[in-house]
């Protein structure tokens, strides 16, 4: 038997696997959405199926802006997990007052600055075991 | 509450070990029982094992029972595993402390063990991603270094902390580790070596980071009556505090150079112990990255907010200074076998407060502190003394 890895680090995004599947379906359309508690109105990041403020499990999806600003970032050159290459830019992006963790892609890492405006640019990662496409949020710097 | 003490301790060799998960358990268990020959495995009433990811690294769960059998312990009062990422070991010590303080047991071993190195190095790092949020962080390739890099960048921007000050933590802890035969690294390091080491995640360089390490450690925890019966030099648990701010990066304090949960955990522990920061002679703090040790000086009250860089540069956290921080070499010098780290910290304080630390001995140490975290927002502080509270 060969040495093998039985799982990968990407979420199982389809409706078979998560009640948050709408997030990924919208992301595939280029939209960034999150949950708003239907009971108390609290908007969360990341999306959640249980409200930590009022303990309700009723929620609705709301669109977020497709643009934000870089609140903090770091560039990792080495020591990345299997399947990930450096240099890799990890950022906290402020979107509609929420802090969103994502990568910054399609941009020279040396040019990234705190406060810079970035635009949603979802990336496709490997398909799930049933062949469904999977996406993750990422941001890119707009060319002026 | 009853008084509770450490009465025995032992640590395996830390490193990239040609050893199985069980070999490491045997090594730490042997070293611990050797430290207290009057106690045999059959005398131990309980076992708590701190271990984070043996399911991935050793294809093994059911850890406490496996370790108990490996060591000949037949638990009659407590058998449990604790998993709290990098703080699993200290969480285990707190369980033993609470059980004994409450009168539910009199003699418990706490063992921490981790076999992190794998045939594939980048798989070992991939496994570390299980410690952050899989769906919202690890899926992006996030592991610990970039998280702490955000704190380092913010500390530098807000307080003028320099690359050299970050490096001096690495120099100090590698130098301390050179006097610890159980440390992962024994060669020491110069400032030029640390500043010249390769960049991991800006501004953190290799010698400012803890490595991927295998190892185990064990302590024996006892009630006052049993402790006084077993040894004339028990090391007393005087206080303990734990606090959490958040798990995901996006739910922590917006200023990543502020770790308020650590301050709250320290305040709880100091209050329980009846001591303050200036009373601490020796501290084992969680320097998973050099920035973490700098922020620890501030949140533990060893210096004011923003003054950690000058504090380390003036030698105030080294022998001859205000408080000796990480005499065993810290996580940077000893390595960080997750579940073992908190227990190894306690083992060092046990040796220091008994005056048994040899070349690493902090003169006249009577109050010791351990700090173990599992992310920037999750902290535990323990305070030990050579007299009970």
Number of strands of chain A: 9
Which architecture of the largest domain in chain B would the CATH scheme give at its second level? 3-Layer(aba) Sandwich
Number of domains of chain B: 2
Number of domains of chain A: 1
Structural class of chain B: alpha/beta
Helices of chain B, by number, come to 14
Question: How large is the radius of gyration of chain B?
Answer: 19 Å
The strand order across the widest sheet of chain A is: 3-4-5-9-6
Binned, the helix content of chain A reads under 10%
Note the overall shape of chain B: globular
Question: Could you spell the SSE succession of chain A in H and E letters?
Answer: HEEEEEEEEE
Helical percentage of chain B: 25-40%
Q: For this entry, what is the oligomeric state of its chains?
A: heterodimer
Give the tags:
heterodimer, A: 144 residues, mainly beta, 5-stranded mixed β-barrel, two-stranded antiparallel sheet, 9 strands, globular, B: 389 residues, alpha/beta, Peroxisomal Thiolase, Chain A, domain 1, 10-stranded mixed β-sheet, 14 helices, 12 strands
Written description of the protein model:
Chain A is mostly beta strands. Chain A has one domain (21-141). Chain A has one helix at residues 21-28; strands at residues 33-37, 59-63, 67-76, 88-95, 98-104, 117-120, 123-125, 134-136, 138-141. In chain A, the strands form three sheets. In chain A, strands 3-4-5-9-6 form a five-stranded mixed barrel. The N and C termini of chain A lie far apart (54 Å). In chain A, 31% of the residues are buried. Chain B is α/β, with parallel strands linked by helices and 389 residues long. Chain B has two domains: 4-119 and 213-235, Peroxisomal Thiolase, Chain A, domain 1 (3-Layer(aba) Sandwich), CATH 3.40.47.10; 142-209 and 239-385, Peroxisomal Thiolase, Chain A, domain 1 (3-Layer(aba) Sandwich). In chain B, 38% of the residues lie in helices and 18% in strands. In chain B, strands 3-2-4-7-1-8-12-11-9-10 form a ten-stranded mixed sheet, with helices on both faces. Chain B has a two-stranded antiparallel sheet with strand order 5-6. The longest helix of chain B is centred in the C-terminal third of the chain and has 17 residues, at 338-354. The chains are: A mainly beta (144), B alpha/beta (389). The A-B interface holds A 3, 5, 9-11, 18, 45-46, 71-84, 88, 90, 92, 98-103, 125, 136 and B 119-120, 122-123, 125-126, 128-129, 134-143, 145-146, 149-150, 153-154, 198-202, 209, 248-250, 254, 256.
């Amino acid at each position: 038997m060969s040495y093998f890895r039985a799982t990968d680090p990407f979420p199982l995004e389809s409706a078979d696997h998560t009640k948050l599947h709408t997030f990924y379906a919208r992301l595939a359309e280029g939209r960034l959405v999150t949950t708003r508690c239907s009971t108390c109105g609290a908007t969360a990041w990341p999306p959640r199926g249980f409200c930590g403020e009022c303990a309700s499990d009723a929620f609705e999806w709301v669109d977020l802006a497709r643009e934000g600003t870089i609140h903090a970032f770091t560039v990792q050159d080495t020591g990345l997990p299997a399947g990930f290459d450096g240099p890799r830019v990890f950022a906290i992006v402020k979107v509609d007052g929420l802090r969103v963790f994502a990568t910054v892609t399609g941009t020279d890492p040396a040019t990234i600055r705190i406060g810079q405006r970035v635009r949603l640019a979802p990336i496709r990662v490997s398909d799930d075991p049933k062949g469904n496409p999977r996406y993750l949020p990422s941001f890119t710097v707009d060319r002026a | 509450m009853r008084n509770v003490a450490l009465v025995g301790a032992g640590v395996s060799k830390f490193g990239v070990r040609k050893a199985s998960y069980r070999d490491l358990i045997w090594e730490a268990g042997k070293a611990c029982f050797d430290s207290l020959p009057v106690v045999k495995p059959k005398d131990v009433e309980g076992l708590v094992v701190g271990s984070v990811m043996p399911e991935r690294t050793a294809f093994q769960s059911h850890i406490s029972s496996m370790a108990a059998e490996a060591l000949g312990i037949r638990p009659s009062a407590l058998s449990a595993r604790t998993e709290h990422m990098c703080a699993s070991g200290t969480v285990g010590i707190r369980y033993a402390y609470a059980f004994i303080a409450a009168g539910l047991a009199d003699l418990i071993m706490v063992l921490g063990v981790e076999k992190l190195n794998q045939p594939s190095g980048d798989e070992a790092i991939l496994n570390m991603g299980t410690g952050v949020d899989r769906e919202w962080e690890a899926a992006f390739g996030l592991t610990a270094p970039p998280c702490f890099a955000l704190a380092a960048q913010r500390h530098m921007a807000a307080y003028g902390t320099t690359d050299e000050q970050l490096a001096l933590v690495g120099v100090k802890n590698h130098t301390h580790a050179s006097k610890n035969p159980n440390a992962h690294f024994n060669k020491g390091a110069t400032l030029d070596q640390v500043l010249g080491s390769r960049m991991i995640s800006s501004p953190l360089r290799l010698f400012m980071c803890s490595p991927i390490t295998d190892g185990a450690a064990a302590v024996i925890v006892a009630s006052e009556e049993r402790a006084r019966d077993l040894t004339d030099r028990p090391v007393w648990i005087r206080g303990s505090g734990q606090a959490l701010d958040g798990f995901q990066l996006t739910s922590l304090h917006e200023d990543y150079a502020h770790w308020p949960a650590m301050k709250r955990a320290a305040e709880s522990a100091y209050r329980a112990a009846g001591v303050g920061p200036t009373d601490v002679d020796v501290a084992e703090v969680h320097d998973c990255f050099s920035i973490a040790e700098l922020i620890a000086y501030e949140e533990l009250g060893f210096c004011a907010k923003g003054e950690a860089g000058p504090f380390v540069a003036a030698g105030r956290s080294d022998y001859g200074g205000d408080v000796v921080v990480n005499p065993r070499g810290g996580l940077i010098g000893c390595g960080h076998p997750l579940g073992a780290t908190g227990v190894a910290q306690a083992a060092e304080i046990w040796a220091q407060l008994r005056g048994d630390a040899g070349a690493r001995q902090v003169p006249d140490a009577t109050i010791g502190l351990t700090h173990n975290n599992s992310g920037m927002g999750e902290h535990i502080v323990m305070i030990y003394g050579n007299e009970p509270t």
